[in-house]
Amino acid sequence: MRTSNYKLRLLLIFLVALFSLLLSTNISQAATISTANFSNTVANGDYYQTEINFQLSNEGSQLILCSPDYNNLDIPMLKSELGKNNVIENANKKQVLINLKDKMDQSNSGSFLLTMKKSDSDIIYIRDIDNNELANENLVTEKAVDSKVTFNALQATNLMTNNDALTTDNTVGALPSRADLTKATTSAEIYVEPVTVSDIDQDLTVHGTWKSTSNRVTLYYRFNSSGSVPKPGADYIPGIEKWGTLGTFTGTAGAVNSFTATIPSSTMKALTSGSLSLYTNYVDPKAGDLGTPYRSVVTNPPYAKDLKILNNGVENNTSISNPYIARGTKLTLSGSITTNTPGTLKFVVDDDETNAPSLNLTIPGINSSYTQSINLSNLGKDDSKVHEAVYEYIAGGKVLAATKYYFVVGNELKLTVPQTIDFGSHMYTDFINGFTATPDVNGELAIFDGRTGNYSGNIGLMASATPFRNAKGDKLSANLSWDGKVIPDDGTGVKVGEVTPPTAAEPAYQNFTQNLKNDLKFTSPKGTGPQSGNYTSTLTWTVDDTLK
């Protein structure tokens, strides 16, 4: 027989509400200078979000956002916030020109939200259209940085000017029409240094030179990988092809000019290897004249990440203190992994690879799924102890991704109870009128019986309780019930559930957590007027074992 006790809590409070009406008026006047500041900077998942408050002069509606951490800016979110035609990107200058006409009130003031991907540094400078700095902040520290400390891409000689202002729906660096291309640009000579992807989460930096009779050239890239057949008889997997603008560069006509640009990391993912081609004409997969090409082979190293394990559709959340109790000898796991290379998935228990079950996976790209059935009885771990298993993905002799999983298999009889059951806080008037409450439950109520064999009898779950009392000893006129049956507060047990006995092939398991949430009720009859305080009761769970 297993028994477990813990406290239930009920908090009764008296509330007095005071209401007041505040009337105010605000008279504003157009400002003669522009100002801006940051507020309400918060971390949200993988991003920082801040609110930018602005007051513009009556001379325009534009500001410039500059950042040495430009690649962390959430441009799509900014376009959603301000309107896509009100955001001009210039990645080469690490700047964004924004038009705030839709965010301004009659006094030329307003606010908008800015989002950046979390990193070690997320610095934003706000400048007016004349490149005067209005404010800056590092979103990581929520503090301003020394305005004397700058970086090359934000020096005044490289800043966006009024010529870049929002006069059309086009964006800075957008692909021009074929009529806009000059013969001088088409004949530009391009050289690119060899490139290697070292980290799939980092943008690819491209260095090179160009030479043209013009002092300005726009380069476009095409990145593609070849198709493949993973194994004999398998379906052909087509290659991946992506196009984009590398950037527009200025220099000296007739001279060799250097350039540095980046290609987003999202373009590189899922590619084992491929070729990078640069063009000086409008990039169109069906175009006959793409301009002068330069091709470089790009190698993406094998990677794997985001390895997930699911059991019965629930993502793994096991721990040493809360292991998964295996129901039977077989454990069927499913999951997913992001990788670009075939490999082997191993389930290694307690660092012992002698009998490690493995699953050979041939994975063509991102978000591959798998299912694996593991016979735990073959692992020699049927000992009622907690075991640590490591699910690891191996390719090329290296562990590319791993996650831990904890489990127990054995012959014990185990009762698991919640840490707390809370019926909440209630007003004094609730007790005058009478009410019934259901609990918030933290934890599980479950019975596991691994004593496999042929038995007669049954396994029952019993519940008993003590009266609800506060710290002064005042007793609450209330009761607990389970599915309509009152649980006496004198310690008398009431049967609240049964478990099907184990067999020679299967252990017994029953989870009563949902029943607990639905069937356990706290009832206060009408007309009671208790003292305020925190009322607790001890609820005792008992396994009534009559197996023979």
Automatic annotation (TrEMBL):
InterPro entries: DNA_methylase_N6_adenine_CS. GO terms for molecular function: methyltransferase activity; nucleic acid binding. One of its GO terms (biological process) is methylation. Residues 1-30 form the signal peptide. This is WxL domain-containing protein. The keyword Signal applies. Keywords: Signal. It comes from Companilactobacillus zhachilii.
